[in-house]
Amino acid sequence: MKNGRQKVIFCDFDGTITGNDNIVAIMKHFDPEGAEPIVKRIIDRSLTVKEGVGAMFALLPTSRREEIVHYAIHNATIRAGFAELLAYCKEHDIKFLVTSGGIDFFVYPLLEPFGLKPEQIYCNASDFSGDRIRIVWPHPCDEHCDNRGGCGMCKTAIIRSYPQGEYERIMIGDSITDFPGAKLVDTVFARSHLIDLCEELKLNYYPFETFHDVIGRLKEMERA
To answer: Which residues lie below 8 Å from residue 207, measured CB to CB, with a gap of 6+?
Structure first.
């Protein structure tokens, strides 16, 4: 702990902890009619992430729950070094949080082997009680969020709950849902599209491919 601030890591899930985006993979595999136009509207931002994800899952019948859950869990791979990063954080008193736009029915099972506590995991929830899958949003935007309620799982609201004066805030991520949070934290570990944003805004970032890269840089930061 330097300068009296505890390190806290906010780590994305899809495409960061996992090797691919699980929501995209589910939609490509099951290919419900009407999903493609929704994806295009998310990309062109005529739909918020919350609206788009909710609309896409509403295309899937709950009668296929077992099939969808099985595919999501068995299709995903965990990025190398994740267990080691968790061990490093525990050893060095770094608070580790998963901040995910993913859904509970695949996020929790995939993280279960790693011993994370429920309070360390922020993600969206699902309701299979009706005819169609309904996504539930337990972590909404706060009054400071620029997306005006459109995040679904608001990463910046979680980040703001750890004040900069008390915490050295670190983000690990890869995509558009990490852009707003990257502007708030002290340090970013970035891959894929997030690198472009960090370059454009000249943010303090380090590229990574595996979590071993992240551990190596955290060690250097500790020595600095």
So the answer is: 189, 190, 191, 195, 213
Structure tokens at 166: 């008390």
Sequence-separated (6 or more) residues with CB below 8 Å from residue 141: 147, 148, 149, 150, 151, 154, 156, 157
DSSP characters over 80-117:
TTHHHHHHHHHHTT-EEEEEEEEEHHHHHHHHGGGT--
Q: Which uninterrupted H or E stretch holds 211?
A: helix 211-223
| CATH code of the domain containing 132 | 3.40.50.1000
Instruction: Report how far residue 192's alpha carbon sits from residue 199's, in angstroms, rounded to the nearest whole number.
Output: 12
Domain boundaries, position 167:
6-19+78-223
Mean pLDDT by 10 residues, the chain (224 residues): 84 96 95 94 90 97 97 97 98 97 97 97 98 97 91 96 97 93 97 95 97 97 87
**pLDDT for residue 4:** 83
pLDDT score recorded for residue 7: 97
Strands of the 187-190 sheet, one edge to the other: 134-136, 121-127, 95-103, 6-11, 167-173, 187-190, 205-207
What is the pTM for the complete model shown? 0.95
pLDDT at 43: 82
C-alpha to C-alpha distances, 100 to 92, 158, 169, 210, nearest whole angstrom: 23, 11, 16, 18
Does residue 93 form part of some domain?
yes
- Dig out the tokens for 161 from the structure: 């709950």
Structure-token pair, residue 50 = 């919350």
Residue 96 belongs to some domain of the structure? yes
The one-letter amino acid at 170 = I
